Each structure stands twice: as C-alpha cells, then as structure tokens.
Amino acid sequence: MQIAPYWKNYIDGVWVDGGAGRIDVTNPATGEKLAEHALADAGDVDRAVQAARRVHLSGALRDMRPIERGRLVQAMGRYLLDHIDEIAEVLTLEQGKPLWESHIEVQGAALYFEYYGNQASTVEGRSIPLGGGYFDWTENEPYGVSAQIIPWNYPVEMTARSLSAALATGNTCVIKTPEMTPLSNAWFAHAAEAVGLPKGAVNLLCGLGQDAGAALSSHPQVNQIVFTGSVPTGIAIATAAARNVVPCVLELGGKSAAIVHDDADLEAFENDLRWGIYFNAGQVCSAMSRVIVHESRAEELVERAAKVASSLSVGPGIDRTEGGANMGAMVSEAQRDRAESMVIRAEEQGARTATGGRRLNRPGAFLEPTVLAGVTPDMEIARQEVFGPVLSVLSFSDDAQAIEIANGTEYGLVAGVFTGNLDRATQAARHLRAGQVFVNEWFAGGVETPFGGFGKSGYGREKGREALWNYVQTKNVAIKLK
Predict the structure, then answer these.
(1) Strand locations in 286-360 (E)
(2) Active site residue 303
(3) Catalytic status, residue 251
(4) 33 FRET partner, CA 20 to 30 A, in 181, 285, 292, 406?
C-alpha cells in the first residue's frame, strides 16, 4: 500500500496539525523515513482535554443506556477487523514486527472492544440495607476524561485495551500515541467516526513524552490516567497525577522468570520459548526474559533454547506473512544497540552466549535471537529489563532457591512454573511475587484475565472485569424515608 507522507492529529473530530511541528517516523527494517506525523504541544493537549471534557459534561456517553454504549464499542472492534490488512501493514512498517504478528495484534485489539462492549451493561451498583427508615444504594460513575499514554511495542492492542474499557464505562478519552509508532492509531479515530461516537469523545495526538505527555499527565481537567512504559516515566506520571489527586493505572514492565523443574517437558517448552521471548523481537513487557532451570536439566535446556533461537529467520517484517520460525526488526537502532550492549556486558561479567547476541550485518534494527547461559542473579542482565530477543538462563538446586531467584528483582509482572507436579506448581504460584502466574504455558489466559504487576511493575489491573473498576468511581446515595 502507499503510505501517506504526512499524518495529522485528531482533536474534537477534526484532523489537525501539531503545534510542535512534525516528527519523522522511521521504518526500522530499513532505517529509512516512512512518513511524518504532526507533533503536539501543550496547547494541542489542552484542546483535546477540553473537547473530551465537553462531551463528558454533556452526558452524551455517560447518560446513554449502557447496552447501547456497548454496541458502539463492539462496532469499533468490527471496524478494525474490516480494515485489518491495511492496519497490519502500516503497523509492521512503523514497528518492525512480522506482518503475521501485526494481524494477531489487530485481532487482539478487536477482541478488547468485543469483550468490554459486552461488559458495558454489567457495571452495576448495589443496595445496602440500613433498616426500615432508609433506602441506600451505590452507583458507579465514569471518572470523566481518561488520559491514555500508549507504548510503542503494541500501539494498536494497548490502545484498544484501555480505550475500549474507558468508552464502555462512559468516559471520554485523550490518547497520546507513541512517537515512534503513531501511524496505526489513526484507525481508532476512523472507527469512532464510523460508529457514530460524538466528536471529542476520542482524541488522538502524537507528542514527545517530556512535552505532550507531561502536559497531559499534569492537566488539571484530566480525571484518570493509564500509562504503560518505563519505571522512571511511570514515576514522573504518578507524581504529576498526585498533584491533582488523579488515580493512575501503571504498567511498568518486568523481568519475568519461568521456573523449569527437573520433571518439566522440555520438548513442549521449546514452543514457550518461541512465544515467550522471541515474539515481537522480545519487546514485550511480560516476556520470558529469564529461565530458572533445575541444575540437572540446565545443559539440555540451553541446547534446546539455542536450537529455537538459531532456527528463526530474521529480516523485514513486511516479507514475513506466514506465522512460524521468523522474527522482524526491533523498533529502532537505538533499542537494538541497547540490547546488544547489555549482552556484551553480560559476557564481560561471565555469562556465555550460546547463540546470537549481535546485530545483523545489514541495514535496519536487527538483532540475532540470543541465548545467554551461565547467568547469575547478581548480573545486570538478570536484573534489568532488556526489552529485546535475549534469553537469560540461570540454574537452581532446590525449590526455595528457585523462588528466591525469581523474586529477586524490583519487578513483579508475570512469572511461570513448568512442572508435572501440581502441588509443586501450586506452592510456587502462591510464593511468586507477580501479578500473573502461568503454569505449563507462557501467556496462558486472555482478555478475560486480569493483568498487572507487583513492585515496580506498577499498580492497577488491565484486562478482565477488574479493569472496569479503574474507569469508574463509586457514589453512595442514602435516602431518609418518612
């Protein structure tokens, strides 16, 4: 398809230029400029917030019968599916992932709209008995303006995750798209128009974090904030929100570990490795970045992991249309260089590279799928998020040590246990410090299952019914009867 050379922001139902000029969007598979996008400033942010606030105060969404509001939300998901081919192609060109992965992302985005559209009429209050002289009940009201700051690794799916839940509960939204991957978010504006949402209910703007992001998170008329990204940025956003006493949902990444016991099925585990660390070139907050394997199986696991990694064909995502043993570019050369430098430092600290670890000798932000053996818990690579296709393999001698290593970082997003012993798996799940624990399948679950972290992986929950409560506040009404 022909990519438009210039893309605008969407504020109050109108496509507009940005007060901060334009920003280049680069194709990470070639290193070449793909398009330009309007760059928002604080004035653009304010106009978007005021538009969203006007719609909220009008009651156009808030007062709509929830089942009708849910139908609009579901229709947005169908719109994405109707345009999946063009969205996926743009997503691959701006983000680098294989085309088949982009199709999965758009399908996942549509599923959020279907799920939360179905949930819109189920956000109910309750009656509280206070005796014969009173009638008391609770209502769940939307916060109002939801500010959503989106990461670059899954720009379509992460936007859908928060936007669908916010709209289903009657909020209006201002979305700051990621400056490296802003193009594919345009279809949310098209979807909002197509299904008949009021102008101003959904606003999309691309801006730098220190400018538009800071202005949005500190805006006094923003009522709720959702952010996915790094710990330092999350702290800055939470600090700005606290000054206005605004609640946040923060998903701040992880250093997630899979504990592999001596009775685990390592042949089946190869598939978990493929999806757990090499999907989207490892640029996944809940990636299986650490494997903690029993010492009796460590050598075998490293061999199997190296086989999986070396079997992957790496190249431009636009050429990778079929699912399977392939991987695309990382999002940028800077991100690729950071991951490569962490591998080199791990080698200097004593880790052994079983396979991969270096950039490809070709244009584009490509890194070889990597397996590091002999990693110890004190190494940087075992403690800090790489956000790349780099697997660190550590070993343990007993169950207590495995849990200690798994819990030995500041993060706590997800964890996994691989064993044929249900009692062992249950005990581990209870002791792992993580918001979600997978047993014998990495990424088990779906849109229905709550997702969020412990520790510096953030707070609040996304996905599942739990996410809906992030977007509503409880009002109690008490009536004295005569």
Answers:
(1) 290-294, 313-314, 326-327, 352-355
(2) no
(3) yes
(4) 285
3-state SS assignment for residue 126:
coil
Determine the Cα–Cα distance for residues 178 and 180; give it in Å rounded to an integer: 6
Residue 394: φ, ψ to 5°:
-115, 165
| Predicted pLDDT at 408 | 97
Specify the DSSP element, H or E, that contains 217: helix 214-217
Active-site entry in 157, 251, 340, 368: 251
If one compares 356 and 253, the residue with the highest pLDDT of the two is 356
When pLDDT is averaged across residues 133-159 and rounded to a whole number, the result is 98
Provide DSSP, 414-482.
EEEEE-S-HHHHHHHHHH--SSEEEESSTT---TTS-B--SGGGEES-BSTGGGGGGSEEEEEEEEE--
Active-site hit among 173, 206, 248, 285 = 285
pTM greater than the 0.70 cutoff: yes
Asked if residue 14 has pLDDT above 90, the reply is yes
Sheet of strand 202-206: strand arrangement: 14-16, 9-11, 202-206, 172-177, 145-149, 224-228, 248-251, 458-459
Residue 221: per-residue pLDDT: 98
